[in-house]
Amino acid sequence: MIFYFSATGNSKYLASRIAKETKDRLISITDCIKNNEYAFKLKEGENLGIVSPIYYWGLPSIVDDFLEYFQLVVSHRPYTFFAATYGTVTGQADTFVKRHLKRLGLELSASYCVRMPDTWTPIFDLNDPVKVSKVNQKAEIQIDKIIKQIKNTESGNFLSFRMPMPAVKLCRYIYEKVRETKHLSVEDSCIGCGLCAQNCPVDAIEIQSGRPVWVKDKCSICLACLHRCPQFSIQYGKFTKKHGQYLHPCMKE
Ligand SMILES: Cc1cc2nc3c(=O)[nH]c(=O)nc-3n(C[C@H](O)[C@H](O)[C@H](O)COP(=O)(O)O)c2cc1C
Ligand code: SF4
Ligand code: SF4
Question: Would you say the pTM of this structure is higher than 0.90?
Fold first, then answer.
């Protein structure tokens, strides 16, 4: 059973590639939250996987919120893994997953990561399709390796670019500020199609008088609304416009 969260497709692609090979069931954390489903049962011999992007050196708030209430009935000792997609630094997202699993009496067998285009475009520039595609090509090699490791039920921490916990705590503090929806804005090019509201995993957007309105003070700041707007009308701060939009190719099929 693989639970995944993905805003722009990187983690969805990773989770799907793993599930295809391991024949694990694939479950969207966004769907679980929207349907208020937190209780699951592992079948005999089934793995437990969590696949997520790294946000601010930890987990996206939506994944943290899901794992906080996650319940699992299990009659064997499962192989458990965390597989992250990331752009630059993984921080200590694995530590947060471990804490959640401990509450369920489970240990984390292995942590993996795959470097993919960094969707935090207030800082990172994704305008060059050739560069972006090269990163995704390199990711294929890392994914193939991880699938082999998971099939061999390898144990260990295979995360690159981890950070010490005091630095991670500071970064998590910044995430709380950064995820205030007041930083998001909409431009006049908006055509009122409503896709941003449909794509928001935490229902933070409502369309009012043909324009998106952020109805929550904080969201996961996944930037799905920004990257998936057909008009590129949603921005976060001053620099996202020049850094472009991104969707993993699997989301365009
Ligand atoms: C709010 C936000 C914060 C991010 N923070 C980090 C980070 O701390 N370290 C990192 O390596 N990548 C970071 N990223 C990049 C994503 O982890 C990366 O692009 C991921 O593959 C996106 O996955 P998705 O397409 O499944 O949503 C961040 C992205 C967002 C939107
Ligand atoms: S997705 Fe873009 S164009 Fe459509 S309503 Fe939202 S901001 Fe406007
Ligand atoms: S409002 Fe936009 S950035 Fe915030 S959670 Fe929804 S889609 Fe993601």
Answer: yes
